[in-house]
């Protein structure tokens, strides 16, 4: 291959990396949410596809109650405290901000978002797959209403974060792990959903109740994202804190950009060979 072709491939790669060629696509779940009634959600074992992402799910109601993990999509806004901790689970399909997110992080009542649940006993990881290798850029995350209420007040299974005097060093974190086409880890990002590890009774302690942007660009080119949760309140079967995370506005390159990147990488490899 001549030098001009090599220079062209290098230029394409540079443009993709710098963002001059790459266009972005937003996974905001409004495509799947268009069919939802108000205060509704979809949770079944088929999972779902939104934009460029495929969201996994496992679901079983044969026990007389729902046993599930993975992802569901929802527009439920009811994040109110029902008063009885045994009823906190009735808020499991709501995001604590009270709706999906706009790009400024403000809650949009009626907007669609995803709720991920990590089954720590199985375990079953909420996973987002992509049809083509994708350089993910960013995503918005927050707490679900159920774990927020549990961490704020405690319930029959999980403790109140900070304890009775507010000094217990409690935390809940979500780890987003990038996987390539061969299921090899490309990197990971840790984001705190709650953190009471600051010294003493500290105003910096928090339980997240707003939508926040999380930078995923360090994960590189991935074929899938896996989400897992870790925290301070742990029992024999894993986390006692309800292991939920709410997600919206996942930013990825448009398919055309991903294909251009892949073609450029293949071209360079052939030049080297």
């Amino acid at each position: 291959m001549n030098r001009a072709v090599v220079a062209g491939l290098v230029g394409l790669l540079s443009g993709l990396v710098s963002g001059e060629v790459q266009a972005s696509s937003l996974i905001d779940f409004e495509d799947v949410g268009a069919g939802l009634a108000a205060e509704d959600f979809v949770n079944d074992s088929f999972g779902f596809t939104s934009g460029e992402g495929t969201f996994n799910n496992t679901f079983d109601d044969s026990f007389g109650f729902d046993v599930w993990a993975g992802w569901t999509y929802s527009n439920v806004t009811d994040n109110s405290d029902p008063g009885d901790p045994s009823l906190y689970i009735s808020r499991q399909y709501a995001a604590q901000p009270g709706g999906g997110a706009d790009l400024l992080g403000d809650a949009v009542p009626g907007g669609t978002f995803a709720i991920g649940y990590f089954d720590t006993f199985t375990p079953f990881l909420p996973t987002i797959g992509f049809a083509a290798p994708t350089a993910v850029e960013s995503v918005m995350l927050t707490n679900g209403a159920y774990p927020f209420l549990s961490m704020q007040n405690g319930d029959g299974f999980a403790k109140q974060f900070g304890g009775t005097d507010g000094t217990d060093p409690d935390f809940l974190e979500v780890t987003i792990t990038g996987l390539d086409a061969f299921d090899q880890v490309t990197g990971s990002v840790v984001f705190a959903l709650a953190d009471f590890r600051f010294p003493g009774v500290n105003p910096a302690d928090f339980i997240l109740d707003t939508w926040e942007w999380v930078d995923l660009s360090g994960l590189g080119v991935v074929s899938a994202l896996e989400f897992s949760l870790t925290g301070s309140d742990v029992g024999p079967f894993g986390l006692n804190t309800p292991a939920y995370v709410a997600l919206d506005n996942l930013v990825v390159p448009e398919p055309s950009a991903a294909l251009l990147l892949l073609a450029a990488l293949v071209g360079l490899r052939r030049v080297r060979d």
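The chain has two domains: 1-23+255-273, 24-253. Residues 24-253 form a domain with the Jelly Rolls fold (CATH 2.60.120.1350).
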